[in-house]
Amino acid sequence: MNMVLYGDSFLGRFGKDLIDQLEHELDNFTVYNCAAGGWNTSDLVSRAQYISRLHPEYVVLSFGANDVAPWKNVITIDAFADNVEKILSSFSGTKIIMLKCPDVDLHDKEQMNEFNSSLKTYYHSVENMFESVGVRVIETNILFEGLDEYHEDDGLHVNKLGYDKIIQKMSELVY
Question: What contacts 172, CB < 8 A, 6 or more positions away?
């Protein structure tokens, strides 16, 4: 079976070691990483038709962080919802897992609060879309509860401990 990782740096940071670990957990899967740091949902829409032609049995999506980041060009919530609809429709017939970005822990508390609040609002705006097409969602804030530290030093990206939990959850959600 084939799985495509498609999204932002949250999945883009899956290097060979994490892909090997995920393939070992899934058994008889080949994982292709089609994610890149900095991509927002507009970037994903522009590539989704092409990537979907790979016809993976599973696609793991990760997006939202670059759409709401106050230090970037923010994508409006309406454009975000339109983009998500296009991404999901591109992968019609594929089993979809959505990996939500966890809350960030930034030194600039104002930016951190704005980012975390906006991300929750944006994700909430597309929950019905996820539900209507059967997207399985990895709620990282719940997944990481009880972990002492799951961020890299930048407070934004996830460390090895976080990825271990994500890989474990991905393997549980393969259906």
Answer: none
